[in-house]
Design goal:
The complex is a heterodimer of chains A (641) and B (265). By secondary structure, chain A is mainly alpha-helical. Chain A has four domains: 60 residues; 301 residues, no CATH class; 60 residues, no CATH class; 189 residues, MetI-like fold (Orthogonal Bundle). Chain A is 69% helix and 4% strand. In chain A, strands 1-2 form a two-stranded antiparallel sheet. A two-stranded antiparallel sheet of chain A has the order 3-4. About 1% of the residues of chain A have low confidence. Chain B is of the alpha/beta class and 265 residues long. Chain B has one domain: Rossmann fold (3-Layer(aba) Sandwich), CATH 3.40.50. In chain B, helix 4 packs across helix 5. Classes of the chains: A mainly alpha (641), B alpha/beta (265). At the A-B interface, helix 25 and helix 26 of A face strand 6, helix 3 and helix 5 of B.
Chain lengths: 641, 265
């Protein structure tokens, strides 16, 4: 419903904005100065046209329009896919979609293989003439197998009858298929099918009210035929499966062939048994000849015209099923661009653009689903709050040795199996946080974890980098001492450090925060240094002669004067940290947005990948906008001095 | 007793190439309390060096300079400085710039505020206290710089081409302001300038300096500053005596420049 409305809205937006823009261009024709800033100011309508076009293309290429307007089309195409899948084996026997008969291509292939083997044997220096003669005779005999299969006179009556039987079955299916009430479903069957359809649900991710459970198991395309047309194809596919099975069980083996192949196999077996270990190569060649003989035995090779009737029957059925598809073929062509629904084995799946460019509605629904704290991703919500007792932090902050240095011993269990608490034990409980105070809400989840890592890395970088940078900007010794240290690690791309740091400091927060600290530290040092050393001498002189001490000059002149550089540095550092973090989370970890994307990649969950891309973009934008606001507020004089 | 006395002041710089530049050579002068000295000269004659030494930003190579019998060995509040570009702190408002010195000395905020208002009124910036300095025009910025310097009540005011970057009209107004402040406060002022007219108009005394080595070439005692307190500055410029002095000094500086060019060629 929503998709339909959105589609129409976007469509009208494009047309309306183009019309409006045309009108505007006409009125402004007088003022056709290239690059007139006044003209560049407006043009919201062109922005709408551009973005709407992109959205429309997205909706279209991700098949959401098909889902909105023809929600059952995927299910029906799935049934058609089943028919195609069943028909595939039979069709390949004939030059329907291929260029030649399967038999022809098979014979060509095996002849080529035999010739190649024969040449190899003749030119080989490993064999003496006697051996060569024997091996080549095997090849000749194998070669003589083929005419035994392709001779129409040798075709047995029994085989002929069976072929006619299969052909009859196909023709009957075609006839039935064209009847409107095929497959003659009873009331009870209908009810059962509709119930199954209901249970299976619709196309795409529709079950957004799912209370809990993992989102990985959502069904892509419903399998059970939901419509009468779909049912027709479903039933035909099942029948075709049986027919095709029957055909491939059929062997065109007449008595002459059977005798001949048995003879070849026996001869080669005897030959191979007589060979000594040093003649392994001859044995291998003989084995390869048997392999070809077996392939010829099990390939469905028939005389040239033996299957003509069957071919006609299959073509007739194929045409009938194409006719029965009707409007579905139009939908398939126009609303499933660059792809379709493919049935293979027990499932139907979207193939082509719709796979990697998932339906906007699916993506949105999955996002809604993932946002639920009970669902989340890998049992962790994206962003939620949990109640944490203050005692946990107290236990974290207080060192445990406080209890150790108290006089006395920790309580020991008594004879009757109880433990009596004493002062030392009680203090231990406090310093390890093993008590209850009151709970406060604390955010957690993938988004929060990523945010916190960037935030902590950045804060540590600022706390250490800014004073150090200012110091280096003012003091030659500090510059000389610290500069080489920083230049030792800074030129290395931060991600190059990641494997080392993660394996030393662990895959959890410590390693990542330290990595981001390294990233932000060098940026903050460089920017603070530039800010400090860029302070105009006259300002420092002025402050001096106004009676400011050195400390006061640092605090009230050099620091505020460096603020523009420092804040620009923070902005750069946020971007760098964000990029590094996502990549670091790809490498290792159990939480974070990068982790989510990495896992989604492994399972081809394209919706989740797009959601993570979206979240990362939004967070990055949020960081930047916030920083820009802060910069505008704190240093309004920038560029105006 | 509150004189500025310079004895055998020498300043020698070493360039990174190893050449020595004699910026000031054997400078001897005495400036009495309440005098207004203007210093004029071609570029490179050591005017700014002299000012920087007086302010205490740099130490002379040899010789001494004393203010009130105390040797100058570093920047101090008793010597206020006004820079060419104002050197205002653009992250502070006008009032915060003006009270910077008092704030650094942690003076009583209420009293400070009173003083700031007084000084803003004197320099003609009443009601601009909360304006950010980057929104001010060049002339207004120099007024702030002047107020910021004067609020500290220095004995000596050093001005390094304070009006150099201003347009002609603003400049004239500021010249009157400098004279007015000089009269009302009775401060000793050293003003460095590139403009001969300005030097003649404002200077009670005028030093024309010559370069290589930097030295005082000629000294004038002028009546125009006292005249300027009562009279319109534009009228003084029409004075015959004024024009004659202006031509004389212009030619003097012109010749010095010619000489430098000749030396270089």
């Amino acid at each position: 419903m929503l998709t339909q409305i959105v589609t129409f809205l976007i469509f009208f937006a494009v047309i309306g904005c183009i019309l409006y823009g045309r009108r505007l261009i006409k009125t402004e024709k007088v003022d056709a100065v290239f690059g007139n800033p006044e003209r560049a100011l407006g043009g919201t309508h062109w922005v709408i046209v551009g973005s709407s076009f992109l959205l429309l293309i997205w909706l279209y290429y991700s098949w959401d329009i098909a889902k909105g307007f023809y929600p059952k089309s995927a299910n029906e195409l799935c049934q058609v896919g089943k028919v195609n899948d069943s028909l595939l084996g039979l069709k390949y026997q004939f030059p329907i979609e291929e260029r030649e008969f399967k038999s022809t291509s098979q014979i060509k292939k095996e002849n080529k293989n035999l010739e190649k083997l024969s040449n190899e044997i003749k030119n080989s220096k490993e064999f003496n003439n006697e051996q060569k003669t024997i091996l080549v005779s095997f090849i000749d005999k194998t070669n003589q197998l083929i005419p035994l299969l392709t001779n129409e006179d040798l075709l047995e009556n029994e085989t002929r009858e069976k072929i006619d039987d299969i052909t009859g079955k196909i023709n009957l299916l075609t006839e039935n298929f064209q009847k409107p009430d095929y497959p003659f479903e009873t009331e009870q069957e209908l009810n059962e099918r509709l119930k199954a359809v209901n249970e299976e649900g619709g196309w795409g991710i529709t079950k957004i009210d799912a209370g809990s459970g993992s989102i990985e198991n959502t069904l892509e395309v419903p399998l059970v035929p939901a419509t009468d047309r779909g049912l027709k194809f479903h039933a035909a596919a099942q029948e075709l499966n049986l027919i095709s099975e029957e055909f491939f069980k059929l062997r065109n083996h007449n008595p002459e062939f059977k005798n001949k192949i048995k003879e070849i196999k026996d001869e080669i077996k005897a030959y191979r048994n007589d060979l000594t270990e040093s003649e392994e190569i001859a044995s291998t060649y003989a084995k390869n000849i048997v392999k070809i003989a077996r392939r010829i035995e099990f390939a469905s090779i028939y005389p040239p015209n033996a299957l003509d009737k069957m071919q006609n029957a299959i073509i007739k059925f194929d045409n009938a099923q194409l006719d029965a598809q009707g409007g579905l073929r139009l939908i398939d062509t126009f609303l499933f661009p660059a792809g379709t629904i493919i049935a293979s084995g027990p499932s139907c799946s979207e193939q082509g653009s719709g796979r990697w460019l998932p339906k906007p509605s699916d993506t949105f629904n999955k996002f809604v689903l993932m946002s639920k704290p009970s669902v989340g991703y890998k049992d962790i919500p994206l962003l939620w709050i949990k109640m944490v007792d203050i005692s946990t932090w107290i236990g974290f902050i207080l060192p445990d040795w406080i209890a150790d240095i108290l006089p006395g011993e920790y309580p020991v269990h008594t004879k009757d199996g109880t433990v009596k608490q004493n002062l030392k034990g009680a203090v231990l409980k406090v310093v390890t946080g093993d008590f209850k105070l009151f709970k406060v809400p604390v955010p957690y989840g993938h988004i929060w974890d990523s945010f916190l890592r960037v935030f902590l890395g950045l804060v540590f970088g600022i706390i250490i980098g800014v004073p150090l940078g200012l110091f280096m900007g003012l003091n030659r010794f500090a510059k000389g001492f610290f500069d080489p240290l920083i230049e030792l690690y800074r030129p290395v791309p931060p991600l190059a450090w990641a494997p080392l740091i993660i394996s030393v400091l662990g895959i959890d927060n410590t390693g990542k925060v330290f990595l981001l600290f390294m990233v932000s530290l060098s940026i903050m040092i460089i920017s603070a240094r530039a800010g400090a050393s860029g302070t105009q001498l006259s300002k420092i002189h002025a402050a001096h002669s106004l009676g400011a001490s050195k400390k006061q000059i640092l605090r009230y002149v050099i620091f505020p004067n460096s603020l523009p550089e420092i804040l620009t540095g923070i902005r750069v550092a946020v971007g760098m940290c964000w990029g590094t973090l996502v990549a670091a989370e790809f490498l290792a970890g159990t939480t974070g947005i990068g982790f989510v994307e990495n896992v989604a990649k492994k399972y081809f969950q394209y919706e989740v990948i797009w959601i993570t891309i979206f979240i990362m973009g939004m967070l990055g934008l949020l960081f930047d906008v916030t920083l820009r606001k802060i910069i505008d507020k704190t240093i309004p004089w920038r560029g105006k001095g | 007793m509150s004189d500025l006395v310079s004895q055998n002041l020498n300043m020698i710089f070493k360039t990174p190439k190893g050449e020595t530049v004699h910026a000031l050579k054997d400078l001897n002068f005495t400036l009495k309390r309440g005098e207004l000295l203007t210093v004029l000269g071609p570029s490179g004659c050591g005017k700014t060096t002299l000012l920087n030494i007086t302010a205490g930003f740099i130490r002379p190579t040899s010789g001494t300079i004393t203010l009130n019998d105390k040797e100058i060995d570093g920047p101090g509040v008793e010597r206020g400085m006004v820079f060419q570009q104002g050197a205002l702190f653009e992250w502070l408002t006008v009032a915060e710039n003006v009270n910077f010195g008092l704030r650094m000395k942690k003076k009583d905020p209420i009293e400070t505020q009173k003083k700031v208002d007084e000084w803003l009124e004197i320099v003609g910036l009443k009601g601009f206290g909360n304006t950010p300095t980057y929104q001010l025009s060049g002339g207004m910025q120099q007024r702030v710089a002047l107020a910021r310097c004067l609020i500290n009540d220095p004995d000596l005011i050093l001005m390094d081409e304070p009006l150099g970057a201003l347009d002609a009209l603003t400049r004239e107004k500021m010249q009157s302001l400098v004279l007015k402040i000089w009269k009302e406060t009775g401060k000793t002022i050293i003003l460095i300038t590139h403009s001969v007219e300005e030097a003649l108009l404002l200077g009670e005394r005028l030093y024309v300096m010559a370069p290589r080595p930097g030295r005082i070439h000629k000294e004038y005692n002028l009546p125009f500053a006292s005249m300027g307190l009562k009279q319109d500055l534009r009228e003084i410029k029409k004075d015959k005596d004024f024009s004659a002095k202006r031509e004389e000094i212009l030619e003097m500086i012109w010749n010095m420049e010619e000489e430098i060019m000749g030396k270089e060629n």
